[in-house]
Amino acid sequence: MQIALVVYDRFTALDAVGPYEILSRIPDAETIFVAKEAGPVRSDNGALALIADKTLAEVASPDLVVVAGGPGQSALMEDEHLLDWLRAVDAHSTWTTSVCTGSLLLAAAGLLRGRRATSHWLALGQLKQFGAEPAGERVVFDGKYVTAAGVSSGIDMALALLGRIAGDDCARTVQLAAEYDPQPPYDAGSPQKAPAHIVDALRSRSRFMLT
């Protein structure tokens, strides 16, 4: 199995690293970071760089595609090189997935039309523009298409995929090894739970503030 994690300038680090940490544990899987150009790709705050081992052109038929989200997604919504690649590899993939606003890139490529999908809560409404059905769930499966909500939900998505690919016990083992047992000190991880003034402040600063 070949797993391609798609990154680009100003991706959100955990969108890629979270799923990588889980999915790279699939037995006999090859996990690679891919981008338009090989080499270092900077995260949204510029402090972290991941190395894209291969260019999009060098990865023709991955079994599993994970598209990270992040502020850099906005500049790629009409990037035909990336969108054409997503369409091409989707024709052969077993799973086509995304984290956070990575789903907007899948949607822009026409892959989510008529399908249920999720994204970061600030961007959820954008999916309608591309014929997708927004679903306010943490992880959404619709056939082979799997979308995760904001940032940290990519870990949940990866564990769900791992269970389907390698079995529940494998997924449980990886979860235990990672000691993934969330007990956050604040109950503010969704707009339904966070204080209204914090939700409003984030919305006012968002590039999706009109959605």
Main-sheet strand order equals 5-2-1-6-7-11-10
Which consecutive residue ranges, at least 5 long each, have pLDDT under 50? Answer: none
- State the order of secondary-structure elements, H for helix, E for strand: EHEEEEEHEHEEEEHHH
Strand share of the residues?
A: 15-25%
How large is the radius of gyration?
Answer: 16 Å
Gross CATH architecture = 3-Layer(aba) Sandwich
| CATH class wording | Alpha Beta
CATH superfamily: Class I glutamine amidotransferase (GATase) domain
Report what the structure shows.
This protein is of the alpha/beta class and 211 residues long. The chain has a single domain (2-186), classed as Class I glutamine amidotransferase (GATase) domain (Rossmann fold, 3-Layer(aba) Sandwich). Helices cover 30% and strands 20% of the residues. The chain has 6 helices and 11 strands. It has helices spanning 13-23, 80-90, 102-108, 153-166, 168-177, 196-205, and strands at residues 2-6, 30-35, 39-42, 49-52, 54-55, 64-67, 95-99, 116-117, 133-134, 139-142, 145-148. The chain has a 7-stranded mixed β-sheet with strand order 5-2-1-6-7-11-10, with helices on both faces. Helix 4 runs antiparallel to helix 5 (168-177). The protein starts with a strand and ends in a 6-residue tail after the last helix. The model has no long low-confidence stretch (mean pLDDT 97).
